[in-house]
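Anyone up for a design puzzle?
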């Protein structure tokens, strides 16, 4: 059984009306190894929660598998120290593909991004969204962030974790995951969607963080045609979203937001739809 994702600590609280000792909930941050065929592929600092979703989502968004049924088993192992090892067993064809990828990438260069080992792999071509006809009414862009805030119990207690949610018009935020790492939260969301059979093109990814190129790559792997964020995007994220045919909306603050790519998916009025 994995450790709890939150811990209680003591602090000295200084306020306008005085100073006092008090308890506060804080998130745990744990090294989590993602291992395939007994070999560690990546070690992420993560919240020890929703780890099966993490394993599945990471495998999907990093292109290790193309569908959940390529995984034979997921085993979560807590070691004697502070870390957690997630052992992911791939089925034969997926394992052969993964081993070939490992041999191709083996070399002296290490970029430190999710276990990949070359600059070319970090800059991999993004998956194109395709013929999604999802549109959101302008007011629903604001609603996505408001609803995600209500789906963040860990953040409500700690104020220190990111979240990624999936918004479907007419249904609201149908899935959300939290983690100390923004990429981890999005991977966990990808796993949760896959496990629940929720179709990526049916909704929008909404995140509490800035938008880096990895966030766009992972959203494209999910198949979502929109990514909505409370913070700003990087220049590379904007170029990558445009290449992918993805609508990137960021800096959602109150009723204000900026649309950086493919604005045709954000329409005036109160109605939104999926064609």
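Challenge accepted. My sequence:
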């Amino acid at each position: 059984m994995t450790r709890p994702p939150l811990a209680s600590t003591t602090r000295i609280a200084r306020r306008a009306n005085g100073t006092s000792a008090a308890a506060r909930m804080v998130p745990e941050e744990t090294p989590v190894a993602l291992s395939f065929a007994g070999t560690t592929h990546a070690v992420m600092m993560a919240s020890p929660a929703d780890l099966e979703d993490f394993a599945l989502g990471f495998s999907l968004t990093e292109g290790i598998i193309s569908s959940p049924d390529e995984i034979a088993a997921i085993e979560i192992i807590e070691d004697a120290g502070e870390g957690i090892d997630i052992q992911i067993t791939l089925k034969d064809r997926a394992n052969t593909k993964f081993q070939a990828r490992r041999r191709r990438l083996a070399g002296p260069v290490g970029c430190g991004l999710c276990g990949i080992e070359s600059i070319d792999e970090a800059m991999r071509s993004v998956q194109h969204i395709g013929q999604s006809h999802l549109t959101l009414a302008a007011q629903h862009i604001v609603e996505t962030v408001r609803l995600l805030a209500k789906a963040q119990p860990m953040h409500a207690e700690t104020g220190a974790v990111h979240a990624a949610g999936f918004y479907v018009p007419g249904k609201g935020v149908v899935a959300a995951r939290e983690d100390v790492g923004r990429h981890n939260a999005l991977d966990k969301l990808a796993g949760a969607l896959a496990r629940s059979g929720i179709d990526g093109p049916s909704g929008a990814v909404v995140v509490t963080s800035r938008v880096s190129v990895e966030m766009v790559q992972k959203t494209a792997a999910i198949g979502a045609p929109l990514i909505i964020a409370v913070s700003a995007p990087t220049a590379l994220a904007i170029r990558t979203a445009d290449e992918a045919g993805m609508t990137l909306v960021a800096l959602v603050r109150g009723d204000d937001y900026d649309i950086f790519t493919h604005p045709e998916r954000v329409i005036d009025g109160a109605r939104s739809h999926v064609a």
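A detail worth pointing out: The helical segments are 51-61, 92-105, 119-122, 138-149, 153-158, 182-196, 213-222, 235-244.
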